[in-house]
Each structure stands twice: as C-alpha cells, then as structure tokens.
Design a protein that fits this description.
heterodimer; A: alpha+beta; 12% strand; elongated; B: alpha+beta; eight-stranded antiparallel β-sheet; 20% helix
Chain lengths: 112, 174
C-alpha cells in the first residue's frame, strides 16, 4: 500500500493511472497521449507495476498496461481511514464549539 | 453516513489531501468564531473532550503550555495495548490565527526520542469568515515513510465517505 501511494504521488504517474481508467493501453500510446518520451514512460510504468498499481500483458509485439482495480480500492480505503479519524475528532469539536458559543453569550439573552 | 450531531445547522465536510511526499493537509470548517476554535484546539481541558476517538482510545492526560517554546503532551490509552503519547513544542502561537508546533509519537508513552529535526511539524491556520472558521492543518513529516505510517494508523477507522481524486478513480473502475 505504501508503495502504491508513493508511486501515485508523482504527477506523471497519476496521469498515467487516470489515462488507464478508460482501459488497457500499449506503452507507446501512453507516451504519445501524455507527451512523455519512451524512457520516461517505461520508467513510470515500471514503478507503477512494482507498486502493484498496474499489470502488463504482451499482445502482438506490444506491451499493454492495465490498472489493477483492487490495488486502487485498497489504497483509497487506506487513506480514508485517516480522514475518518479526523472527521470523528471534528464532530466532537463541533459539540464543544456550540457549547463554548453558548457560554460566551451575555446573560439574559435568548439562546439559539 | 448517518446524521451525526443533528443539532448543528450545517454538517461540514472534512477534507484530506496529500501534498508532495511528506505532507498531509486536513481541512474543516466550524460553525463558530476563530477564538473559540483556536481554544478548542489548544486548551488542555478542551482537548480532552475531542482528541481521542471514543471507539479507539481514552485520554489519560493532556498538558499544553501554549506559548512559543512551551511543551505539550497528550497521553492515550488505546482499547488494546500499552499507552501511547504524542508530544512536542510550540514554535508559533498567534491566537486566534495560527499555530506551529512539533509532534513526536511516543509508541510506549515513555518520552520522545530523537532530535527536534526528526519531529513532524504541524502548522494550523484558523480563518474566520462570517462567524465561521475554516481550519487547515498541515502535517509535515520528516520522511515519506513516517508520513505513510501515520496514514496507516487510520486504518481501523470506518471507511465510508468519499475522497477527491482517488475516489473518482475508484468509481470509474466500478
């Protein structure tokens, strides 16, 4: 998971992953669409493959890359856990903020 | 997601983004003025009320000497396992606008180890507009590895709500 996250932190690699959402693509096609040269694309794809984000298949002399949905789904859940932790804390803070607002109001005034 | 805190007029969304290799940015709006949100974030007696998610841990103690150079330390008792603690020092304290402090994780609550240069640095800004406050917390970790471990620590939490970029990706994959 950590590898997948690191792999996606690089903007070109994130664009490759976005491109592959539409379906599997051969290496040279990826390079053309994203205006990356062959060595760059190969390097990025290698990192993505090692991180488990993409798979590769040989088809008629071409290397075709595709996304591994499970890897992305896991990554999403993994990140979501930390956000959820903060969301829980913030909900508790909401109550506290309401309480402090009420305390701040001068006496004799109607509370909301 | 079930309605929580239904007395609040507006349910605000918590956003989270990764910025580069080492930083996590968390943002949320609160329905109150900055001075109140700032106090809730910093004052020891108030931190006790919200910092530990009840489903996961209980707060044992909170100390916070909220001034530049002052120390802070929160000790937690997780539902399982030994006590843990978070601690550090305040670098900037500008009530109610801005806070900068260091953060060390103490895996067995036995004091922070390592030099100040190995601490995470958190910068929190409180921007008030029309009686509401937008809070942004930028957590900058000493390395990608440390940041990812922190992210992984959220794993036990529920995983329901949506999240920007990755969420779009996941949806598109059906």
């Amino acid at each position: 998971m950590i590898d997948a996250l690191a792999a996606l932190a690089e903007p070109s690699r994130f664009r490759i992953v976005e491109l592959l959402r539409a379906g599997p693509r051969p290496v040279n096609d990826i390079g053309e669409r994203l205006r990356l040269n062959q060595p760059q694309v190969s390097k990025h794809l290698r990192v993505l493959k090692e991180a488990g984000v993409v798979d590769v298949q040989a088809k008629a002399q071409q290397r075709v890359y595709e996304l591994r949905p499970d890897a992305l789904r896991q990554l999403h859940e993994w990140l979501e856990g930390y956000r959820q932790l903060w969301d829980t804390r913030f909900s508790a803070m909401d109550e506290l903020v309401e309480e402090l607002k009420a305390k701040e109001k001068p006496h004799g005034r109607k509370r909301k | 997601m079930a309605a929580r805190g239904s007395e609040a007029a507006v349910t605000n969304q918590t956003s989270m983004e990764l910025d580069g290799d080492r930083t996590i940015v968390i943002a949320r709006t609160f329905n109150g003025p900055a001075r109140i949100v700032f106090d809730a974030w910093t004052r020891a007696d108030l931190v006790k009320r919200w910092w530990a998610p009840a489903s996961r841990a209980a707060i044992v103690s909170v100390e916070a000497d909220v001034r530049p150079g002052g120390a802070w330390r929160y000790v937690l008792q997780p539902l399982k396992g030994p006590r843990i603690a978070f601690s550090g020092r305040y670098r900037e304290v500008v009530r109610p606008d801005r806070l900068v402090y260091t953060v060390f994780f103490e895996p067995t609550a036995e004091g922070a180890v390592g030099p100040e240069s190995e601490a995470a640095v958190t910068t929190v800004t409180f921007e008030e507009r029309g009686g509401r406050t937008h809070l942004v917390s930028r957590e900058m970790y000493p390395s990608r590895e440390v940041r990812d471990m922190v992210l992984a620590s959220g794993m036990e939490g529920g995983m329901r709500e949506t999240m920007d970029q990755l969420d779009v990706l996941v949806e598109s994959l059906g």
